[in-house]
C-alpha cells in the first residue's frame, strides 16, 4: 500500500515542478518582452532625435547661425533663411495661449473639484474627457468658419487671421486637458488638510486658496506645461487660422506664421538635399528640443518618490 502513495507523491511533486517551470518561463518571457519594448522605444526616440538633428544642422553649411536665429527674412528662392519670425511667433503664441487658458482652466477645475454637486461633476468630467479627444482639425475648421468671420466683423480687419484667432483656437483645444489634470491634482489633496482648515475657522475660499491650491501646485503646474507642450506642437488647427505669412504679427490681427505652420506648408515643395529642406528640419529640431525641455521640467516638478 505504500508504493501507490509514494507514486502519487512523486507525481504530485513532478506536476508542481512542471507548473513552476511554466510559470517561471512565462514570467521571464513577460519581463523580456517589457524590456524589449522599452529598448525599442528608446531606440526609436534616439533615432528620431539623431536623424532630425543631423539633417537640421546641415543648414549651417550654407547659412550662418546668426542669420537663421536672428534674421526675419525668409525668402528661400533668394537663399535667405531667417527663422526669427517663426521662432518668436511660436513663443508668442504659446504665451498668449498660456495667459488665456490658465485662469479659465484653473477656475473650472476648482469649481468641479471643490464646489460642484456630485451630479454636476458626473456631467462635466465626461464632457471634458470628450473634448480632449476631439481632433484638432475640427477645432481649426470651427475657427476658420466661425471665429475668423466673427473677428473680421468685430474688429473691421480685412482678413481676421493672426495670433488672436490661433490663440483662441489653441485655448479651446488645451483647456480640457489642463482642466482635467488640474482637477485630478486638486482632488488628490488629502481631505484632512481641508478639515484642519475648517476646524481653525477658515472659510471655503481661504481653504481653497491657502491650503488646497498650494498643496496641488505641482500637479497644476504639470497640467499647464502639458497643455503648453500640446499648444507648441499643434499644426493643423494653427495652419487654418494663423494666415501662414512670414511676418511678425504682434498686433494679433496680422496674418503671420509659426514653426509648425511653416513646416507643414512648405515641406512637400522642397528637395530633401536642399538648404531649404535642412532649414525646415532645423525648425523641427527646435520644436523637439522645446518639447523635451518641457518634459524634463515636468519630471522635476513631480514630488520625490512618485
From TrEMBL:
InterPro entries: MetI-like, MetI-like_sf, Phosphate_PstC, Phosphate_Transport_Permease. GO terms for cellular component: plasma membrane. Residues 87-298 form the ABC transmembrane type-1 domain. The keyword Cell membrane applies. Keywords: Cell membrane, Membrane, Phosphate transport, Transmembrane, Transmembrane helix, Transport. GO terms for biological process: phosphate ion transport. Pfam families: BPD_transp_1. One of its GO terms (molecular function) is phosphate transmembrane transporter activity. CDD domains: TM_PBP2. The chain crosses the membrane at residues 29-52, 83-116, 128-151, 157-175, 220-243, 278-298. It is found in: Cell membrane. It is a multi-pass membrane protein. Belongs to the binding-protein-dependent transport system permease family. CysTW subfamily. Part of the binding-protein-dependent transport system for phosphate; probably responsible for the translocation of the substrate across the membrane. PANTHER family: ABC TRANSPORTER PERMEASE PROTEIN YQGH-RELATED (PTHR30425:SF2), PHOSPHATE TRANSPORT SYSTEM PERMEASE PROTEIN PST (PTHR30425). This is Phosphate transport system permease protein.
Amino acid at each position: 500500500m505504500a508504493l501507490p502513495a509514494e507514486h502519487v507523491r512523486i507525481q504530485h511533486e513532478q506536476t508542481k515542478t512542471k507548473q513552476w517551470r511554466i510559470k517561471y518561463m512565462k514570467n521571464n518571457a513577460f519581463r523580456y518582452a517589457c524590456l524589449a519594448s522599452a529598448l525599442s522605444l528608446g531606440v526609436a526616440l534616439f533615432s528620431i532625435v539623431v536623424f532630425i538633428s543631423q539633417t537640421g544642422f546641415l543648414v549651417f553649411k550654407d547659412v550662418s547661425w546668426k542669420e537663421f536665429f536672428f534674421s526675419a527674412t525668409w525668402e528661400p528662392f533668394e537663399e535667405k533663411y531667417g527663422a526669427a519670425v517663426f521662432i518668436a511667433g511660436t513663443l508668442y503664441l504659446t504665451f498668449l495661449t498660456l495667459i488665456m487658458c490658465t485662469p479659465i482652466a484653473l477656475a473650472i477645475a476648482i469649481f468641479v473639484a471643490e464646489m460642484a454637486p456630485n451630479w454636476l461633476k458626473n456631467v462635466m468630467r465626461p464632457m471634458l474627457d470628450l473634448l480632449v479627444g476631439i481632433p484638432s482639425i475640427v477645432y481649426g475648421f470651427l475657427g476658420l468658419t466661425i471665429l475668423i468671420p466673427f473677428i473680421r466683423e468685430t474688429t473691421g480687419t480685412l482678413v481676421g487671421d493672426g495670433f488672436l484667432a490661433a490663440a483662441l483656437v489653441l485655448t479651446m483645444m488645451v483647456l480640457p486637458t489642463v482642466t482635467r489634470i488640474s482637477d485630478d491634482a486638486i482632488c488628490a489633496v488629502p481631505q484632512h488638510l481641508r478639515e484642519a482648515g475648517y476646524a481653525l475657522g477658515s472659510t471655503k475660499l481661504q481653504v481653497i486658496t491657502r491650503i488646497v491650491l498650494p498643496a496641488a501646485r505641482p500637479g497644476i503646474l504639470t497640467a499647464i506645461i502639458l497643455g503648453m507642450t500640446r499648444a507648441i506642437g499643434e499644426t493643423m488647427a494653427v495652419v487654418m487660422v494663423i494666415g501662414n505669412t512670414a511676418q511678425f504679427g504682434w498686433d494679433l490681427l496680422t496674418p503671420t506664421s509659426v514653426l509648425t505652420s511653416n513646416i507643414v506648408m512648405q515641406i512637400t515643395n522642397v528637395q530633401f538635399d536642399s538648404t531649404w529642406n535642412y532649414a525646415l528640419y532645423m525648425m523641427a529640431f527646435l520644436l523637439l528640443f522645446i518639447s523635451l525641455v518641457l518634459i524634463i521640467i515636468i519630471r522635476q516638478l513631480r514630488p520625490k518618490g512618485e
